[in-house]
Amino acid sequence: MSRRGNTRGNNNEEAPSNEEMMRLMAQTLTAMTNQTAALTALIQNQNRNNNTPQPPPAGNTDGAQVAWLNLLEKFVRLGPPQFEGSTDPMVVDKWKEDIEKMFVAMRCTPVQRQQLAVFQLSGEARNWWKNEVISSGLDENTLTYAEFCGRFDARYFPAVVRHKKIKEFTDLEQVKLMLVDDYLNQYISLQRFGHFMVPDEDKATRKFENGLGDHIRSKVISHCFPTFQQVVNSARATEADWLRNREARQRTSNARHQGTRNKGNGDPRNDRNNSTGWKRQRSENETVNAAPTFYCYNCWDAGHKSNQCTNPKRPRPTILNDIPGPIKHARVHQQNFQNQNNGQNKTNPNQGRFHALVPRQDQVPDGVVEGMFLIHNKLGGILFDSGASHSFIAATFVCDLSIEVLPCETPLSVMSPLGKNYLD
After folding, report:
1. What is the pTM for the complete model shown?
2. In CA terms, which of 15, 23, 160, 360 is 20 to 30 Å from 400?
């Protein structure tokens, strides 16, 4: 009895109980369920992408398989973009930039980067890579991401396109009507193709600064800002001030234009009518003023010429002689003035002098300026003498302009260039 009991006791210690068996089976089933769910999700994602799963890293063990699936799951959760093939270099470069940021965050190896990048190819790009692997005999288990990029760029980002983008970055400037922010966006977008031209911040800052528009660069460059952001901030502030000044000028111009239109009540025909009326009035005035007044050189009366004159010849009128027209009454005032000065109130006459205009005079005396001048549409010779004591006007101009003549209150003795005295 004792032996059987010991035998049963030994059997109980070596064989697991039913509870332990159930617990182990549950753990195994849970692990298989989780693995199946992960594989199912991976297969569904691959079907959506029209891709086939990539092989795990070399050494196809269970641990390597699990590690690959975990890496792939983390990568898919980040939402990497797919690449279906494009001839736009900006699209190609943007796709590479996006997935490379994820590679850095996940700390992937060069081979893992290549495998994950290939996993995101679809459509035309996927077909191209299949042919590339077959034709070149590539081993995806050892191929690095740098080797993949070399073949990828040769297909979708060739050297001729890269050189074109480099030239665009070299020639980039803020053209007319381009805002500073638009210029900044283009600069940053193209800078990736010309990193060798601006390897540090100082060179990048000077390149951006020199490309600004003339109306902004002249005010920014004088400050010699050391950082890129300081140049950008200064350019934005300068542009805002320039735009405010331009809007103010436009408002002033529009107000002036609106005022001009209001004068004609907004009707261009009124402007034309007003202009026509002014021209008509001016023409009539010019006709009246320009009507010639003829004087006879024989009798010195107005209205006819000497070849038509039937009157007896009279001497040329002067201030002291009989003058036709409105000047004749001056003799009465002159005679009254002389009668008043015949008594005790005689004063010594003032001495004056005047110059005469001589045709073809070779040299004009110092202080004398002569020329022709238009007075009420009458062209006459003018002589300015800085040493003259009085101003004189020809009798013909007095008549033509209907100027009232009054005698001098003080007698004036005038000496002519010929030495003759004229006593008024």
Report:
1. 0.42
2. 360
